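Comment thread on ticket #2218

A.B. wrote:
> Attaching the input chain for the structure job we discussed in standup.
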Amino acid sequence: MSHYYIRIPEQDESRGPFDIPKLETLAEAGQINPNTLYYDVEREEWIPIALNDALRSKVFPEREKLTLRIQKEEKREEEEEEEVSGLDIESMLLAAEGGTEERRKRTRQKKSFEHAAKLSAAGLGIMMIFSALFMILSLMPVLRAAINDGAIAHLFNYPTILIGIFDLILGVLLILSVTEVFPLARGRAMLTLGFGLYVGWALGDPLLMGLTAAAAIGIFLATISQSLSTMIFALVLGIGGNAWLAYLALNGRFDGFFDGITLNLIAN
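C.D. wrote:
> Ran it. Output below, let me know if you need it in another format.
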């Protein structure tokens, strides 16, 4: 299902992503109209919904022709007002220069937002997969023993394994661009921060505390970033922090620490 980012023409702030049913709901509530802009990924620009026949017919099925007529009349009135205005040549040049600079600024902001939106889901997915590896590899001795003893089901008694499976599922969904799970990723970032700081403190390991903080902040920023620079910063923190934690777990840094944290979900 297609998802769209929208914004009001007079404002820079965008909202979304929204699917078609959500846009219909917003239209019925009067929160958007045919002049509302949506971001067209193929054309890489913001376009009024009224100019996309397919999208317009779904969101505003009864007001299509009237909207286009109103837009044409408004445009004609604006052109007539510009012709009648008594601006001299110097004023017109100054206005044109200011308009050009403003357009450039808006174009830069729009492109920055577009690039950030393209990177967010995939980047978050990679972070969560590395986080899953960290959680699961932290119990590698237990995992090997369960495989050797044919007691795979007993692994579900370990909360660390359960969290790792959750992270793995979340990572796959994000790589598939299921943006509805962004709130779950933000919640997971807070859990990562609290859990990692506790483990780092318990082990007396400042490196672990720093990596956990970087991983959590990276995940959180990636869910809210609307500029390319912030998104790159989030990716560096999130992917770097989680990948480093996974590397430490692979090398046995946490062996023996998580073994005693168990539940009684499955009897031995």
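A.B. wrote:
> Thanks. Noting for the ticket: The first strand starts at residue 4 and ends at 7.
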